[in-house]
Design goal:
The chain has 10 helices and 3 strands; from the N terminus they run E-H-H-H-H-H-H-H-E-E-H-H-H. The chain is mainly alpha-helical and 329 residues long. The protein has 2 domains: 2-243, no CATH class; 248-328, Single alpha-helices involved in coiled-coils or other helix-helix interfaces, CATH 1.20.5. A 3-stranded antiparallel beta sheet has the order 1-3-2.
Length: 329
């Protein structure tokens, strides 16, 4: 670490730093990772996808915010005329469309699979009915709110992410380019501290190595910090661009109702089958036996009596089957 004293003069010294990493994806399925997760993060594909998501968020957020503010302001100003409502409906419809694209982007880059919100309930044909459905839809207003909230958050995450990765790369690769300072600027290296009388530069081999190690630590930590930021993005997409809790509950109840209806239909078919194959068949046989007994009543009274006795037993059995069936119902 070189220092120099003087009045208004610039000291000389070299500086070293290393810090920047790369993003990659984890080990392939079926292979045991050779590195722990903390060391593997800069090389994981997930890290690169999250970086791409953050970098894309700023221009997309600017477009969403501009669209929303412009259309809502214009629509609010025109509410005194008949044009205000169509403009507001167009703003909400546009926000829903942008929201669909954001769900696709979150699914592709963050792995956050968010189902779409409940569709518009247009009960009548015509533009007025469509505008009314858009204005009444809670999903439309949530999409518009997302456009407003996403802008400041995207600015924050973009700034933090770019700063961290730039600092990481700058420090990590410092041993490769620290010579630029003494060659072209006359300074020893990166300035660690400086005032009018005293300046400290990172220029010795030890200081250059330490700077690179600090950069390595930043490189290993930055993917996890960016991941924490994109987790908030996923929560925003899920909370504002997905279905509401009420609609999810309705879907769940409809699914349960379908299961109950199918079960009831199966039970009804089983009851019909039991009646047809059990009690009904037994009663038909009983009627035939009684008919034969009636014909033999004069010719062979004893045989007819036995047939009547057998029919009496069949009646008891049929009654028991009917009781069991009724108890099952």
């Amino acid at each position: 670490m070189a220092t120099q004293y003087g009045h208004g003069g610039y000291g000389q010294g070299y500086d070293t730093g290393d810090d920047e990493g790369r993003y990659g994806y984890g080990p392939r399925p079926g292979r045991r990772p050779r590195l722990p997760a903390a060391l593997r993060a800069p090389f994981e594909g997930r890290t690169w996808r999250e970086l791409g998501y953050v970098l894309l968020s700023l221009p997309i957020a600017i477009a969403l915010f501009t669209w929303t503010v412009t259309m809502v302001s214009l629509g609010a100003g025109l509410l005194v005329t008949f044009l205000g409502v169509p403009v507001l409906a167009a703003a909400l419809a546009g926000s829903r469309g942008f929201g669909a694209l954001e769900r696709v982007r979150a699914r592709a880059l963050l792995g956050v699979d968010v189902p779409g919100p409940e569709p518009l309930r247009v009960t009548k044909p015509g533009a007025l009915a469509w505008m009314g459905a858009v204005l009444k839809s809670g999903a439309s207003w949530r999409s518009l709110l997302y456009s407003l909230v996403q802008f400041p958050w995207a600015v924050f995450t973009f700034t933090i992410t770019v700063t961290l990765w730039t600092l990481s790369l700058t420090l990590l690769t410092y041993p490769l380019w620290f010579w630029v300072f003494p060659t072209y600027t006359g300074e020893g290296g990166l300035q660690l501290y400086g005032d009018e009388h005293h300046r400290i530069y990172l220029d010795t081999p030890f200081e250059i190595t330490v700077t690179a190690l600090v950069g390595l630590l930043f490189t290993l930590a930055t993917p996890w910090l960016v991941r924490a930021l994109t987790t908030v993005d996923g929560l925003l997409v899920r909370g504002l661009l997905g279905p509401s809790l009420l609609s999810e509950r309705v879907v769940e109840l409809e699914s349960d109702r379908g299961v109950v209806v199918d079960t009831a239909a199966a039970d009804l078919r089983r009851i019909e089958r039991d009646l047809h194959d059990g009690a009904q068949a037994r009663l038909v046989g009983l009627a035939m036996d009684l008919g034969l007994a009636k014909e033999k009543m004069r010719e062979d009274p004893q045989a007819a009596a036995r047939m009547v006795e057998d029919a009496h037993g069949e009646v008891k059995t049929a009654l028991q089957e009917l009781r069991d069936l009724a108890r099952g119902i």
